[in-house]
Amino acid sequence: MARPNLSTASRRLEAGASAESVADTLRRAVLAHRVAPGVKLSEEEVGNALGVGRTIVREALRTLAHEHLVEIHRNRGAFVVRPDKREAIEIFEARSLLEPRTARSAAERAVYADVSDLRRHLTEESEAMAVGDSGRAVYLSGQFHVQVARIANQITIARFIESLVLRSSLIVALYWRRPSAMCECHAHEALVDAMAAGDGARAEEIMRGHLVDLLSGLDLAERPRSDVSLAAALKGL
Amino acid sequence: MARPNLSTASRRLEAGASAESVADTLRRAVLAHRVAPGVKLSEEEVGNALGVGRTIVREALRTLAHEHLVEIHRNRGAFVVRPDKREAIEIFEARSLLEPRTARSAAERAVYADVSDLRRHLTEESEAMAVGDSGRAVYLSGQFHVQVARIANQITIARFIESLVLRSSLIVALYWRRPSAMCECHAHEALVDAMAAGDGARAEEIMRGHLVDLLSGLDLAERPRSDVSLAAALKGL
DNA sequence: GGGCTAAGAATTGCCAACAATCTTTGATCT
DNA sequence: AGATCAAAGATTGTTGGCAATTCTTAGCCC
C-alpha cells in the first residue's frame, strides 16, 4: 500500500504535535495543491502520513471544516473543497466589502516598522516567484493581505480576511489564467507606497482595484470536474 | 454535588444528539445568559447535564471556540468569553462594513415571500418583548439581521454576519443600558418597509444608522469583573 | 448484459479507560 | 504569620476498541 507523503514539506511532525500543527500542515498542503480539490482525506491515512493518532487528525479536520477548506460528510469523511464559480464571486465580494476600508485604516495607522515589514514581505514574494515556487508565491501573496489587515489593528476583521484569503488562495490556484506568471504584484508595491505616505484614500482605492483585478484574472468557466479519487491522487505522488 | 441544569430550556436531548445539537444548546444558553461570561464549561458537567458523552461535548466546545463564544485554554478547559470594550467596538466596526451594503442587496433582491417572512419575524420579536423574555428578544433581534443577510443571497457574507450577530447578542446582553426596554426595533420595521419598497439606498442608510444606534446604546464602562466561578454560577440556579 | 439484492470490507462515530497536566490542599520551614 | 514546596485530587488530552453506517463486490434474476 502506497504511503501518502503529505508531510514532505513539513519534515514529519515530532511527538507532541498538537491538532493545530496538523491543521497547519493540511492547510498548506491544500493551498499548495499538494492534495487536489475533491480528494478524500481519510483520517487514518493522514494520521499515518503525519505520525499522529486519528483523534488529532479528526480535530484538525474539524478545524479546516470550520474554515471551509474541507467538507465533512457524516459517516463518509472529509473532502477537500472545490470552490465553484459562485463561491469564488461571493468570496471576492466579501473581500471587497472588508479590505479597502481596512487598507485605509492601515495606511492611516502604519508606523515605519509596519511599512518595513511589508517591504521585506514583498521581497520574499518576488523571490518565491523568481524561483518558480508558485505554491509559496500564492501563499505569501495572500499573507500580504492578512498583514495589512493586522496593521489596521482590527483583529476581528483581520481574522475574517485571513479566512477569506485562505479560500481565495485555493481559488486562485484552481482558476488562475496564467499558471506561470502570477499576479505581478505591482498593486502590492503601490499599496505599500501609499501606506508609507500615509495616504489612506489612495490605499483604499488601490485595494479596491486590486481585488477587482484578481477576480477578473480568474477563468471561472466550468471545469470537467476531474473527480480524482483518493487512489489517483496518491499514486500521482 | 449540585447538578447544573443547562438543559431546562432544551428539553434534554434525545439519544443520537450530534455535536451540533449540543453546540446549539450551549449557544442559546450563553446568549440567553443562562451561563454567565467567565464561567467554566466543564466537559463532564455539560455532558452529564445534556446526557451525552465527553467526546460530543468536546467537539461542540471546539465549534463554539471557533465562533469566539468560548475560549479554550489547553489543559484548563473552556470558558464563556467576556467581550471587552475593544472587542465590542471591533465587532460593530465589522458589522458596519458588511451589513449596510448587504441590506441594500437584500432590498434589491427581496421578493414578496421574503418581506412577509421578515414581518412574521418582527411580530415574534415584539411578542417576546411583550412577554418580557429579554433573552429570546435579543436572540430574535439578532436573527433578524441574519435573515436579511440571507435574502441578499450571499451565504459567505451571511455566515460572517451570523457569527458577528451571535457575539453582538452576548455584548448587548452584557452592556445594554436599559435592561428592561430593549431596542424599540423601529429600525427593523423601517428596514422591512424599505425592502418592501425595493429601496436599496434607503435600506443601506437605515442599517448604517441602526448599527451606530446599537453601539451607542451600550454602556461600555469597565465592569468590576465579577469573575464568577463555576460554584457561584451553579449555586445561583 | 443490465440491474437489483445481499453479504463483506472499510471507514467513521462514539465511548470508556489510561496518561498528562493543572489546581488545590496541607504540611513544613523561615 | 507568610511563603515554599509536595502530594493528592480533579480535569483535560490521547489512545484503542467496538458499534454503526457507508461503500464495494459478488451473486442472482430478468
Molecular structure report:
- Two copies of one chain form a homodimer.
- With 237 residues, chain A is mainly alpha-helical.
- Chain A is built from ten helices and three strands.
- In chain A, helix 4 (85-109) packs across helix 7 and helix 4 (85-109) runs antiparallel to helix 9 (200-216).
- The longest helix of chain A has 25 residues, at 85-109.
- Chain A is globular, with a radius of gyration of 18 Å.
- At the A-B interface, helix 3, helix 4 and helix 7 of A face helix 3, helix 4 and helix 7 of B.
Instruction: Bin the helical content of chain A.
Output: 55-70%
From the structure provided, what is the oligomeric state, counting identical versus distinct chains?
homodimer
Structural class of chain A: mainly alpha
Strand order of the largest sheet of chain A: 1-3-2
Please report which band the strand proportion of chain A falls in: under 5%, 5-15%, 15-25%, 25-35%, 35-45% or over 45%: under 5%
Beta strands of chain A, count: 3
Shape of chain A: globular
How many helices of chain A? The count is: 10
Nearest-integer average pLDDT of chain A: 85
User: Runs of chain A with pLDDT <50, length 5+?
Assistant: 1-16, 227-237
Distance N to C terminus of chain A: 13 Å
Calculate Rg of chain A over CA atoms: 18 Å
The most extensive contact between chains is: A-B, 19 and 19 residues
- Helix and strand element order of chain A: HEHHEEHHHHHHH
Largest sheet of chain A: 3 strands, antiparallel
